[in-house]
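Researcher: Structure for this, please.
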Amino acid sequence: MSATLAAATCALLGTTAMTPVDAQEEPKWDFNTSLLYYGEDENRVQDLSLKSIIRRLFADDRTLTLGLTVDSLTGATPSGAIRQDVPQSFTRPSGSGSYIVPAGELPLDDTFKDTRLAITAGWQQPTGEKGLLSAGFSASKEYDYLHTGVNASYAHDFNNRNTTVSAGFAFAKDSIESVGGAPIPLTSMLDVGDISNRVGDQDKDVLDVVFGVSQVISKNLLVQGNYSFSQADGYLNNPYKVLSLVDGVTGDTLPRIPGNEGGPSGVFLFESRPDERTQHSLYTQAKYYMNGKVLDASYRYMTDDWEIDSHTLDVRYRWPIGGSSYIEPHVRYYTQTEAEFYRLSLDDSAPLPQFASSDYRLGNFDAITAGLKYGWKTRNENDMSIRVEWYTQSGTVPAGQLIGNQASRDNYPDLNALIVQFSYRFLR
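Model: Predicted structure, token format:
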């Protein structure tokens, strides 16, 4: 019974039952590498990411894990300004140039280009007969962003190892080195060469705490539940996002007077977000083993003090094909409400609010990811897989925020993206 339960549990966890390590056996290395492409339509964000994870498996159940990720990001991203029936010009984030958006088009900042290098290191070892302690470090560097973080967790088995409780934390300290400097919130975009409303580098701290429990219900069913708490303090603005200041009757962006050729054509104010954010999340997952097939379903609820509530439902079904390959359909549904300070634009006839952002990621939207993964074993028993998925997102702007001509425009255009990932894993 115990051997059957162990094999079933390993299948539920998406792993293979490990052969006991002989005292004379050499320790093993586990190499896992993946190449991911993410591409949005309409010439928006494109990402090519290479990720490699190396694990050193020691004979006494200790594990050293090293990770390396390299991301290359290009494309265009919405600036936050609204569409207009006339061409619009904007000063670039660096302040050294400008660009023009044709009439009727969504303003996109085409300077979005970056390379991110991230490293992780982790150590895991048993403590006593039923405990497992993990600790790690992470760091990443982008052109305008530096992240460093530490994490640790502890898990303990009970009830003949059928129940596991765990607790962990992660702390990150990030530095934002905005191109041209971080703009003072709700100040206007200025002429080319004028960065007088910019300040120096900014910082933020993020603390995450998670408590969890997993339970073997039967030889075929494994369930788990987590509660997580996240507290962010510091600079939480996106320094490249703006809002259009509009006429309170027509809803059109106010022209900038006096205008300056090469600078912004309208009045665009840099966003302002609170300098604190607290999030609470509940997560539950079930994995059911059915004669080689595995159904994996999870649900996550998140709420925060920015008044964003989100729901995520994720379902995967691994179906073996013969003895050496499988297919895995995947569907993920996500929905969220808008932040309390989300605004499509700012009305010039009303006082400026303390906080405001038109970032579509803080708006009300639904998103669906659907796709298929195919995995197989090579002749030398290594694991390979390819995953292809399609992401689609659509959102709405609260009717009460629409002013004048805005009601006839596409204020929250749909977003579609293709995701392709190739993975390769081998042991030595």
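Researcher: Any notable elements?
Model: The chain has one domain: 2-427. The mean pLDDT is 92.
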